[in-house]
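Page 42, continued from yesterday. The earlier attempt failed because a stray header line got pasted into the input along with the sequence. Redoing it now with the clean sequence only.
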Amino acid sequence: MASGAEAAAHQQEHPYHLVEPSPWPITGSFAALLLTGGAVMWMHEIGPGKWITLLGLLGVLVTMWGWWRDVIHEAREGYHTEVVARGLRLGMALFITSEVLFFAAFFWAFFWGALVPPELVAVSWPPEGVEPIPTWEIPFLNTLILLTSGATVTWAHHAIKQNDNQTAFKALLLTVLLGLTFTFLQGYEYYQAIVHEGFTLQDGIFGSAFYMATGFHGFHVQVGTIFLIVCMIRAWKGDFTPERHVGFEAAAWYWHFVDAVWLFLFTFVYWWGGSLEFTVTPVQ
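This time it went through. Structure tokens are written below.
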């Protein structure tokens, strides 16, 4: 890594960031290969697939930690000029766009099952013996929690613009606590539905689409919470300035995306989808 003086000289020459040689692309590639290859071996019960998968997962986590640590260091050294910052924002925007399409596939499957059920097999919506999760209990409470977290992360953004990292830290702490509460309540909801109600992933299109959509959203909440924890630590250290806080912006955009997806899940999967009732008799 270059020193602060070298970084300043680098910025005077041009506004772009030519990164230093880094081990993380090659280590990340090998870790991903171990992770995916080991997972296939594990699923087919071939040799030490389980341990190869865990080794690959560890390699991915180490790569993520080291790579993002270096990016934060580069930001502190002044490499993230306005031109570079625009590129980082564009990259995050494109990533979120890909995530929108990812969730669109699950919504497509859910709407297809609800509106155009197959005519060759008997279909019951909801499946026989399954009670949909009550919309106005935990799902509604989680909606309020995520909407509140969207307000607190916006509060943190305004604090950073005012160069008040201390207030930003407090607002991010509240956001993280709300995110953890959401995750706990969703886990409890799943426990009640699976263990006590017998509603599982195997309950036709209704069950598979429900758990895939809400489960992946829950995973995104966890990723977003970790993202915000990192920003919270950086705010505590005073890293952010009104002019330079691209890392926080990326986390805030991601969190607002998570909020928006949940509103669609609550409206169409829990409320609308849970209120539908029909039975399709197969065509002879």
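Notes: The chain has eight helices and two strands.
Reminder to self: strip header lines before submitting.
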